[in-house]
Structures are given as structure tokens and as C-alpha cells.
Design goal:
By secondary structure, this protein is of the alpha+beta class. It is built from 3 helices and 8 strands; from the N terminus they run αββββαββββα. A hairpin with a 7-residue loop joins strand 2 and strand 3 (about 50-55). The radius of gyration is 15 Å and the shape is globular.
């Protein structure tokens, strides 16, 4: 599965300059096992891409990719787009384990003010995961509401599960 032509295991340097990667918006959990590099550019389908890499990896190997579509003033459209993508995935990946997690509270590390997200996951036999979510960030958060389409290696999926 690819997002904007990128796959897990690729080097982000095949798609971005080292300067773009070093200047990316960096997010991640406090332990910094993985960094999420947010890169705003003009993409075919998304407003921003988030690339999961390990700190100090000079090759910038991709362990996870997220495409984000911003819905800053239209949360209803956000939920509608999430449902549309989840339904498309259900048809394309009908043999994958699908789980609709419903509405969840954002982890304190990502939104200490209590935002929520609706999440549908699709798990591969090898432990990697695809997921789609609509993120309703709290008003106090600096992050805008969005749909996220994500693909994670098994390592990142286990890591994120450990943070939930």
C-alpha cells in the first residue's frame, strides 16, 4: 500500500530533500522511539504527509506514513470522508481484520485538552496496519481537525498500541 507513492521501508530521501526533512514539523511521544515528520506541500490527495522515522537515522527509513486532509471548519465533512475511505478499504481489503473502534479520547501526549477521534483499523497478517480516522481536536489545541489515512509497519503498530 502506498500513500503519495511512498511505501514502508522506502527512504524518505527518495521523496524529500534532507533539508525538507530537517525542517519538517517534528512530533512524537515523549520517549522519541519514533519521530513523526510533518511535511506540508502540494500533494495529489493530501494537505500534509507525516512520515514515521527513527531518530538519528541518516537514511530516513520510513516505518509509517500518514496522509492528512484538513477539515478545520467542517467536522461533518470530516466524518463523511472518513466513512467513505473506510468503506473503500473494506471493499479493497475484504480479507483484512477490520475493527471500528468508535469515538476515542486523544492520548494526553497528543491533545492534553481532551480532543477525540473516530478510528477504523485494518490489520494485516504480518502485524502491519492501515487505519483511517477523523480527528476532532479540542478548541484549545493548536492542531486542526482532519482525516488521517495511515499505514504502519508492525513495529510502529505495536508501539502505538502500547501508548493507548
Amino acid at each position: 500500500f502506498q500513500i503519495e507513492g511512498m511505501s514502508i521501508g522506502d527512504s524518505a530521501l527518495d521523496y524529500f530533500s534532507e533539508e525538507e526533512l530537517k525542517n519538517a514539523n517534528v512530533e512524537g511521544y515523549k520517549d522519541k522511539k519514533f519521530l513523526m515528520l510533518g511535511i506540508w506541500k502540494e500533494y495529489k490527495s493530501y494537505d500534509v504527509l507525516q512520515i514515521y522515522v527513527k531518530p538519528n537515522d541518516s537514511k530516513y527509513e520510513i516505518y509509517g506514513i500518514a496522509g492528512v486532509i484538513v477539515y478545520s471548519d467542517d467536522l461533518e465533512a470530516c466524518y463523511k470522508k472518513m466513512d467513505e475511505i473506510a468503506n473503500d478499504f473494506s471493499v479493497i481489503f475484504k480479507n483484512l481484520k477490520k475493527q471500528d473502534h468508535g469515538r476515542l479520547i486523544n492520548p494526553v501526549e497528543t491533545d492534553p485538552y481532551g480532543g477525540t477521534y473516530d478510528l477504523v483499523t485494518f490489520d494485516f497478517m504480518n502485524g502491519s496496519r492501515m487505519q483511517v480516522s477523523c480527528n476532532d481536536w479540542s478548541e484549545k489545541s493548536a492542531i486542526v481537525d482532519s482525516v488521517k489515512v495511515e499505514v504502519y509497519s508492525r513495529e510502529v503498530a505495536k508501539y502505538i498500541d502500547s501508548k493507548s
